[in-house]
From TrEMBL:
SUPFAM superfamilies: 4Fe-4S ferredoxins. It comes from the Bacteria. Signal peptide: none annotated. Residues 251-280 form the 4Fe-4S ferredoxin-type domain. The chain crosses the membrane at residues 33-53, 80-101, 155-174, 180-200, 330-348. This is Cytochrome c oxidase accessory protein CcoG. GO terms for cellular component: plasma membrane. It comes from Aliikangiella marina. GO terms for molecular function: 4 iron, 4 sulfur cluster binding; metal ion binding. PANTHER family: FERREDOXIN-TYPE PROTEIN NAPH.
Length: 464
């Protein structure tokens, strides 16, 4: 190919730079609801680590000590089943709410949505409204632009650092963490996680924003598996709105063949992901309902009925009745409520004592001079309650059992006690070579709770 011919071939970029989105603030019912949700969730996140319970931090996930304090309950690694069940409950709850109301989680409660909205508020506070931000970005660099951009990013970084500090405060005592920051005495991991979480907050909520929802979040890709024609979605009434066109407020637009949509594009300007809801349901829509609020406001100004853009269902759009109770939602609701009931039942009946029975494998058994069979054990007893307790140990199920070792002992809150024991049982009571033995531990406080730990007791082979 000649050089001249090659120069005439147009060159196309394989990568198109994403256009910056300038979402406009909107006022309305759903906007107020979203603001309330943002303040509620941020308030919980930032305030909870500062709450105290019995002279300690109310919620503290103490990884080095392997203790997870949640108000009046302390969980241990042995309680991993509760965390697993809680995660399953959250997943089923997400499926349930999605089946009912679509991407309700994305629009109101997702951390990406909550923190992005906060960063947008900061940006609007410094740089002004949507039009002012667009004009500022188009301006050449000068003192005003430099000052505003510096102020915005400074506030973003400070807010992100406070977010990272609070996050680490769930794992290290938050008051001690603050003292360590002032004295520059934190450990490397604490500095690392504060920096990483701050960077993630600044990057995701300040820089990437809608790109996290569009390209990184998997939920948008598989949400269709949880949708059906009775799922609540945000939709534009095409039959009522088309043909679009601009007109004066009191004009007889229907005589000109126009619909209710005045093509003001306000629904696009307020969308945090930059889509046009009039193009139909799209996976980029996070169901924040900002387009509903702004469209209702425009309809009010024009003197038209509200609801050109609204929450609806596919069945409702086609004139069919919407069914809230259907096999999908019934299954999700039953499973969700059943899991919650199971979780609270397990918490209510949780045993705040963990006993690990370790039999001496180097010595199967001994026979005493009096003809009894003796096995050697180590009992590792963990007091998982938040107070010290006195305990008494017994053997359950054998009339001739004797314990050579401590039978009454005290364990501090969160303490572990190792008990070396020798247990003797009359050979006539042993029915086979390997027998079940039950160690019964009773608390000597007002509750008188009893815990049973199972082990194996070995004896001589029985003659047939």
């Amino acid at each position: 190919m000649s050089k001249a011919k090659a120069e005439r071939i147009p060159v196309k970029d394989l990568y198109a730079k994403a256009e910056k989105i300038y979402p406009r603030q909107v006022h309305g019912f759903f906007s107020r609801l979203r603001i309330l949700t943002v303040f509620l969730l941020l308030g919980i996140y930032y305030i909870v680590p500062w709450l105290t319970w019995d002279d300690r931090q109310a919620i503290l996930l103490d990884l080095p000590a392997r203790k997870f304090h949640l108000f009046g309950i302390t969980f241990w690694p042995q309680d991993f089943v509760y965390l697993t069940l809680l995660l399953v409950i959250c997943a089923v709850g997400l499926f349930l709410f999605t089946a009912f109301a679509g991407r309700l989680w994305c629009g109101y409660a997702c951390p990406q949505t909550v923190w992005t909205q906060t960063f947008i508020w900061i940006e609007e506070f410094v740089e002004g409204n949507r039009n002012a931000r667009i004009r500022l970005d188009k301006k050449p660099w000068g003192p005003e632009k430099l000052l505003k951009k510096t102020a915005k990013h400074t506030l973003w970084i400070l807010f992100a650092l406070f977010t990272g500090y609070t996050f680490v405060g769930y794992f290290s005592p938050i008051r001690e963490l603050w003292d360590g920051i002032l004295a520059f005495s934190l450990g490397p991991w604490e500095w690392f996680w504060i920096g990483l979480y701050s960077l993630a907050t600044y990057g995701n909520a300040g820089r990437l924003r809608e790109q996290v929802c569009l390209y990184m979040c998997p939920y948008a890709r598989f949400q269709s598996a949880m949708f059906d024609k009775d799922t609540l979605i945000i939709s534009y009434d095409e039959e009522r709105g088309e043909e679009r066109g601009k007109r004066k407020r009191n004009a007889d637009y229907k005589a000109d063949g126009l619909g209710d949509c005045i093509d003001c594009k306000q629904c696009v300007h307020v969308c945090p992901t930059g889509i046009d809801i009039r193009d139909g349901l799209q996976y980029e829509c996070i169901a924040c309902a900002a387009c509903i609020d702004v469209c209702d406001d425009v309809m009010d100004q024009m003197g038209y009925d509200k609801g050109l853009i609204k929450y609806t269902t596919e069945h409702s759009e086609k004139g069919k009745s919407t069914h809230i109770l259907r096999p999908r939602t019934f299954l999700y609701t039953s499973l969700f409520m059943g899991l919650i009931a199971t979780f609270f039942f397990l918490i209510a009946t949780r045993t705040p004592l963990d006993v690990n029975v370790i039999r001496d494998r180097n010595n199967l058994f001994n026979e005493t001079f009096s003809g009894e069979i003796q096995n050697t054990y180590q009992l590792k007893v963990l007091n998982m309650s938040q107070v010290a307790n006195d305990y008494e140990l017994k053997i359950n199920g054998y009339q001739t059992s004797q314990i050579d070792g401590p039978t009454k002992f005290t364990i501090d809150a969160g303490g572990v006690l190792t008990l070396p024991l020798r247990v003797s049982i009359d050979a006539d009571e042993l029915e086979k070579r390997s027998n079940d033995i039950y160690f019964e531990i009773t608390t000597l406080n007002d509750s008188q709770d009893t815990y049973i730990a199972k082990g194996k007791f070995l004896g001589p082979k029985k003659e047939k």
